[in-house]
UniProtKB/TrEMBL annotation:
Entry GO MF terms: transmembrane transporter activity
Organism: Chitinophaga agri
Highest taxon in the source lineage: Bacteria
Domain ABC3 transporter permease C-terminal per the UniProt entry, residue ranges: 290-404, 685-792
Location(s), subcellular: Cell membrane
Record's keyword terms, sorted: Cell membrane, Membrane, Transmembrane, Transmembrane helix
Protein name per its UniProtKB record: FtsX-like permease family protein
Length: 799
């Protein structure tokens, strides 16, 4: 019986080639896009899936009363160990780390690498896979390291790098040799232990090595908020049970500022990747899932529309089957079988389309999507359920509507022109156009916001700004003089206008904040201001604009500082220049030398925070050497800069980036969403236009006699084309009226997440409406033209 249903289904598909092609193409596009998005969502949700005891692993995160106090990903250095030692019935294990980067060398190979000095429990606590070495004793002593397989290949040209020696630049004691005692297997997927805040770390060191990169005994200092900390809870223990112990230890050991402003939260590692950065990944998943659902719904509506619209061709077949004893259940099964067969063909095509588009979507979404043949069990199940669900949903309405028709009317072939069928078809067209216009308008607002980011005045000049990121961090007077000498040599190059040494650049990060207050104010009236440590050339190199006073120089008093406009307002200073401020709980006084106009140091979506710019002379802190170029011959002058660098730092890598590229990277999430929405918009219109081809083709066939009569009575081609255009004009107008309010609400809600945003104007709505009208009119006119020009005799003979 089933084989008979399939045979009949294939015959009908072959008989109505145009409609079959439209249905198969639409469903193939919808299934492919849904599969791509579904696999992407699955991959994102599987981040951290390889971590041992995942349901009991938690990340400790800080919530701060003031936005610019500290990063949320760090907590007091001694807290995690204190919880483990004092509450062993609650905490089974812990891990703390101070993520940083440094220059590492082996013979003539020099690279800047991400590092994790931390507790030696890193391998055993999370079940990281060791390719070489003992996972239970990954570190032999304080001078041993564990590296990744990729790092081993990069430095030593082989994966088995056990007992090889790597030289690492430390901030305090210069170069130190470390022996490789473990090699981690290349990860099949990302996790939030070896990749922290988006940076993948390559070398893992014992906690004692923290002293070489941070303050001494940073892991034992309750007031040193610099550690990333993880806890593994005992079986059956919930995060709520640690609220009391955390508050108790903080109250007993931390200073008053931390007690008053810090709240510690536990975030499960199973959802941490989705929830971090204000749930950025989770929001992306929801948006893409909704868009994929819209695309798939478009394809299903097309199928239903065409199936119901062309039902007149099969009414007598249905009637005869009923006359000869065919039961309604059998007829429903036949229609569902046809839908599933057609969906199966579309699904087969979708596999090929998936493989074709996988690299493109992987690049757009910044995720390596797996090949079809490497799908996991859940991916295969998702795909099969997707195909079966689409087939059943698409075939359900035609099956139940057509088989319920009155037998006499069916034999006469008279039900296809009923008002209910016409109303359903127009309602479904309105729904299709509404969804397409909704996605299109939202896509236009996303693009406008991204353009707003790149066109907005930043307050600094990012163009032709080369930033060397591999500066050795010898933070003492000798190290500062050495890097300043390199800076000055580079400034003597013909293609260089300025160069500056700083702790941070405007890449979305900041160097932390410090509490300051106006002279004479009480200690509890402090304001947290972001700190930028640099030299006297920073304003010239980055093109900062002075509002008052001047920028300090390297020869000025080290306690001379520069504020931005927001800091002057936050501190309630009269004019800023010449006034004194001081550090909270300190007698150190700082004199305001100048005030710069506000500039965006972090993401434009965040409000500009108060900032104090300090001289390197107050205490060297530098990570970047920024070089402002003034030439179009970039390659030539980069070569000159590199020559100076290698002459002064022969054992350090020459790693650099351009500030405009870093700026674009800050908005990668928005750009990724915009590209995905562009693709979805295009697919929506492709599916809509395919459906319109089918509906119009059926309508032209059904109304052929009407067209013939109109031509006999004197109607010309233009009148007949206008007749069909008028029918769809009402549909599109209604669709716009439905889509516009929804699009306004959604777009405005999304834009509200940004402190600086584009305005809500009618432009995107008008553009969406015009493009929708234009594409639809063009398609209908082209289809109608042939019928309108046909001979009236031939049209009147149409059966």
């Amino acid at each position: 019986m089933i084989s008979m249903y399939i045979t009949i289904a294939l015959r009908h598909l072959a008989k109505r080639k145009l409609f079959s092609f439209i249905n198969i193409a639409g469903l193939a596009i919808g299934i492919t896009f849904s599969l791509l998005i579904g696999v992407y969502i699955g991959e994102e949700k599987l981040v951290n899936g390889d971590i041992k005891n995942l349901p009991r692993q938690y990340y400790m995160q800080s919530a701060w009363k003031a936005d610019n106090m500290y990063m949320p990903l760090i907590t007091p250095g001694a807290l995690a160990k204190g919880l483990h030692d004092q509450y062993p019935s609650l905490v089974a294990n812990y891990y703390r780390t101070f993520p940083c980067s440094a220059n590492a060398s082996y013979q003539d190979k020099h690279f800047r690498v991400g590092m994790q000095p931390g507790d030696t429990t890193v391998v055993s606590a999370f079940g990281l896979t060791m390719l070489y070495g003992d996972p239970n004793h990954a570190f032999r002593d304080n001078n041993s390291i564990v590296i990744t397989e990729e790092t081993a290949m990069k430095f030593f040209g082989k994966a088995n790098a056990l007992d090889e020696v790597l030289t690492i630049d430390t901030r305090k004691d210069g170069k130190k040799d470390y022996t490789v005692t473990g090699v981690l297997k290349k990860e099949s997927r990302m996790n939030s232990v070896t990749t922290i805040n988006g940076f993948k770390n390559e070398i893992f060191l014992p906690m004692q090595s923290v002293d070489y990169f941070a303050a001494p005994d940073a892991d034992k200092d309750w007031n040193n908020v610099c550690m990333a900390s993880y806890l593994q809870l005992q079986p059956g223990v919930t995060p709520a049970q640690l609220d009391g112990p955390i508050r108790k230890l903080v109250a007993m050991n931390c200073n008053q500022q931390l007690k008053d402003n810090m709240t510690i939260q536990l975030v499960g590692l199973d959802t941490f990747h989705l929830d971090t950065n204000n749930g950025l990944v989770r929001k992306m998943i929801y948006i893409l899932a909704i868009i994929a659902g819209f695309v798939l719904l478009m394809a299903v509506i097309n199928y239903v529309n065409i199936s119901v619209g062309t039902s007149m061709y099969r009414l007598k077949e249905i009637g005869l089957r009923k006359v000869f004893g065919g039961k309604r259940k059998q007829l429903i099964t036949q229609f569902l079988a046809e839908s599933i067969v057609l969906t199966g063909i579309a699904a087969f095509l979708s596999i090929a389309l998936y493989e074709l588009l996988r690299p493109v979507f992987g690049q757009i979404l910044n995720k390596t999507l797996p090949h079809v043949w490497s799908f996991s069990g859940w991916m295969v199940l998702f795909y099969l359920l997707l195909v079966a669900g689409v087939g059943l949903v698409a075939g359900a309405y035609p099956a139940f509507v057509l088989t319920a028709s009155n037998l006499l009317k069916v034999l006469k072939g008279k039900i296809a022109v009923g008002k209910g069928e016409l109303l359903f078809r127009k309602a479904s067209l309105v729904l299709q156009f509404s969804l397409a216009i909704l996605v299109f308008v939202c896509t236009l607002f996303i693009s406008r916001q991204i353009n707003y980011f790149f066109k907005r005045q930043l307050g600094y000049n990012k163009e032709q700004l080369l930033v060397i990121s591999s500066v050795p961090r010898q933070w003492d007077s000798a190290g500062l003089k050495r890097v300043e000498l390199v800076r000055d040599q580079m400034m003597q190059q013909a293609g260089v206008s300025s160069a500056t040494v700083s702790f941070e650049v405007p890449d979305g990060m900041n160097g932390g904040s410090i509490p300051v207050l106006p002279e004479g104010a009480a200690n509890d009236a402090f304001v947290n201001v972001e700190r930028l440590v640099t030299d006297g050339n920073y304003a010239a190199a980055y093109g900062l604009q002075l509002q008052a006073g001047r920028f300090f120089t390297d020869q000025d008093n080290p306690l001379d500082v520069v504020l931005n406009e927001t800091a002057v307002k936050a501190l309630h200073l009269k004019q800023g220049v010449g006034e004194e401020i001081r550090l909270a709980d300190s007698d150190t006084k700082l004199t305001v030398r100048g005030v710069v106009k506000d500039f965006h140091f972090t993401h434009i979506g965040q409000k500009i925070a108060p900032m104090v710019i300090l001289s390197q002379e107050t205490g060297p802190m530098y990570r970047y050497l920024s070089v402002k170029l003034k030439t179009t011959d970039i390659k030539k002058h980069i070569a000159g800069i590199e020559a100076i660098w290698k002459a002064r730092y022969p054992d350090s890598p020459f790693d650099y980036f351009f500030m405009d590229e870093k700026f674009q990277a800050m908005y990668f999430s928005e750009t990724r969403l915009s590209k995905a929405a562009d693709v979805a918009t295009a697919l929506n219109f492709v599916i809509i236009l395919l459906g319109a081809v089918g509906v119009v083709a059926f309508s032209l066939t059904r109304r052929a006699k009407e067209v013939g009569v109109r031509k006999v009575l004197g109607a010309d081609t233009r009148n007949i084309i206008f007749l069909f255009l008028k029918e769809y004009t009402v549909v599109i107008i209604i669709a716009n009226l439905i889509a516009w309010p929804a699009a306004y609400f959604i777009a405005n809600k999304w834009l509200d997440e940004y402190a600086y945003r584009t305005s809500m104007s009618v432009g995107p709505f008008i553009v969406a409406a015009l493009i929708t009208f234009s594409l639809t009119y063009l398609l209908i006119a082209l289809q109608s033209f042939r019928t309108a020009n046909a001979s009236p005799t031939g049209l009147l003979r149409n059966e």
